[in-house]
Model the fold of this input.
Amino acid sequence: MSESNLPMEVKTDDPQSQESVIPPAAALVSIDRVTKTFGSKVALKDVSFSVPPGQICGLLGPNGAGKTTLFRLLMGILKVTGGRLQVDGRDAFEERVEVKRLIGFLPDEPIFYSYLSGREILELSAAMHGLKPGETLERLAPVIAKLRLAEDIDNYAEDYSRGMKKKLGLLLAMLHQPKLLVLDEPTNGLDVESTHLFYDLIFETAAQGTTVLFSTHLMDHVTRLCSHAVIINEGKLAANGSLEELRAATGEAGLEEIFLKLTAREAQSEEPAPEASEAVSAGIKGPKLKRLSR
Done:
């Protein structure tokens, strides 16, 4: 595959080279040169990629790369500083009420109302979506059983284990049959059996046309689940393409090696700064030393 034909860019700062390979009209998620700043801090810079309907796409990046910011932009919680972000042709911020109806979101740490059972939380959420709680629970019954949650669905959710809370959170994300599932570290807290049940459920959901975008630090999960991956590093798009295209472009066979190659950072020196060494040896307490001593 020649460089000019690669549908991905590796470590590029040129926004013109980050054009989406999927036409916006055919994409469920269209991110076009999106930039987000917080004061002088640049969280995302000229990020562009598209995700078509039914695709399972992994969003990868080191801590602080901008993944959470991107999810918040998708959910309409934040507004882009520059560029455009659309879900099913709707502006994620300006039309956020409509967009939120299209998205099911699973946070890394789901939090539920105290003294409500899992069933009551599902019924409440169904009613808030304008759905009939009884019919919704009946529709979800096979999924509840598949996730091994049927015996605990009437217990208080605050007493659930972390893994059980993740399962309930996934049910809430899927409850209104969204077009897009946004999952933040979805397998954290799940045991081996539950992780494989999650795999099966995501495959079934995508086969029905639902788009899945999820973040994880577990490369094995991306290899098993995803056809495509997006890698963000220091707020910029490092790579975007199918797993085969990523391997061809980087010359690496494993996704972990690809990730490390594209997100490599210079090693930080373990030696203290000369000024700090002199201050410590002389017994001088500068402003930073005072702050640490409190």
Notes: Residues 192-207 form the longest helix (16 residues). Residues 1-22, 276-294 have pLDDT under 50 and may be disordered. Residues 3-266 form a domain with the Rossmann fold fold (CATH 3.40.50.300).
